[in-house]
Specification:
There is one protein chain. The chain has 305 residues and is of the alpha/beta class. It contains eleven helices and ten strands. It has two domains: 2-108 and 280-295, ATPase, nucleotide binding domain (Nucleotidyltransferase, domain 5); 110-244, ATPase, nucleotide binding domain (Nucleotidyltransferase, domain 5, 2-Layer Sandwich), CATH 3.30.420.40. Helices cover 44% and strands 18% of the residues. The strands form two sheets. The protein has a five-stranded mixed beta sheet. The protein is globular and about 70 Å long.
Length: 305
């Protein structure tokens, strides 16, 4: 049996599977340490793991895969290993949350994915090598992310309010979002705590919808679409995947992004189209546990309980 855990910024989802079926599911609070803090995140993961362990019922738990935000940072990874070693029985592997979507789509076969939510990141694997691009955070710009679309909408609205660019429906969206009528009022809220930059991601969906009939929004979305496609193509080149493989997008904005990305992708002559990944990431975590156990992949734990 295998456990897969998807540690998100809102919820932690987990599944226990055997070789063919989902045996049990569990849900807890957030386990993104960058959002929830270390203690709250660790408690959420512990809760779902122990809840699923009750359903193992004498069977052998072959391994656990945990997909967690920020795990590429060594200090976050080391803290997780220190905590997980206290209670997890057997093999476990820590991976970036973006790898779960890839596994859910490909089941270990070659493919590339773009995760387009509050932030963004791009990942690919060709069967022997992997690559990760983007994911630099809102200060440097996560291409195609909710935060970046929200920021661009606010910038465009401020330019229009100042009378130095064309009018746009983004003015109405932004002034309603901030409950403010002037640039000065918007800036006062923007720069005053407890405003957090991730909050502007709430504008992303309306911006993508507005792009169908508003010229300013259209240009913002079109520019971002070209850059997202650029990241997917860069993964292809780095990993040498010139033949048929899977290309997918996931995250809260994936459905809204699909038609825009398709328009940028198809003229490039690719033999496969971009699809929205339908299986939830937590199933990708369980799939990785199954694959890596079968392959004898070295665990993140060096001394097994």
């Amino acid at each position: 049996m295998y456990i897969g855990i998807d540690g998100g910024g809102t919820k932690t989802r987990a599944v226990l599977v055997n070789d063919s079926d989902v045996v049990a599911r569990a849900v807890a609070g957030p386990s993104n340490v960058l959002v929830a803090g270390e203690q709250r995140a660790f408690e959420a993961v512990s809760q779902v793991w122990h809840e699923l362990l009750k359903h193992v019922q004498g069977n052998v738990l072959e391994g656990t895969v945990l997909g967690l935000a920020g795990i590429d940072r060594s200090f976050i990874r080391d803290n997780w290993i220190r905590r997980l070693d206290q209670f997890i029985v057997g093999h476990y592997w820590l991976v970036g949350d973006y790898q779960l979507a890839w596994a859910a789509m490909t089941h270990g076969a070659p493919g590339t994915v773009g995760i387009l939510g509050t932030g963004s990141v791009f990942y690919g694997h060709n069967g022997t090598q992997e690559a990760r691009l983007g994911g630099y955070g809102w200060q440097l710009g996560d291409v195609g992310s909710g935060i970046l679309l929200g920021q661009e909408a606010v910038k465009a609205a401020l330019l229009a309010l100042d009378g130095v660019s064309e009018d746009t429906v983004l003015v109405d969206l932004v002034t309603k979002f901030f409950d403010a009528a002037t640039p000065q009022d918007i800036l006062a809220k923007w720069y005053t705590p407890p405003f957090e930059m991730r909050m502007v991601s709430a504008l992303a969906g309306p911006v993508l919808n507005a792009a169908r009939h508003d010229g300013v929004a259209h240009r913002i979305v079109e520019r971002q679409a070209h850059q997202v496609v650029g990241y997917l193509e860069a993964l292809d080149h780095q990993l040498g995947m010139a033949d048929v493989y899977s290309v997918g997008i996931a995250g809260g904005l994936a459905e809204l992004w699909l038609p825009w990305l398709t328009r940028s992708w198809e003229p490039l002559g690719h033999r496969v189209g971009i699809t929205v990944i339908s299986d939830p990431p937590v199933l990708g975590a369980a799939e990785l546990a199954r694959l890596w156990h079968s392959a004898g992949k070295r665990s993140d734990r060096h001394a097994f309980a």
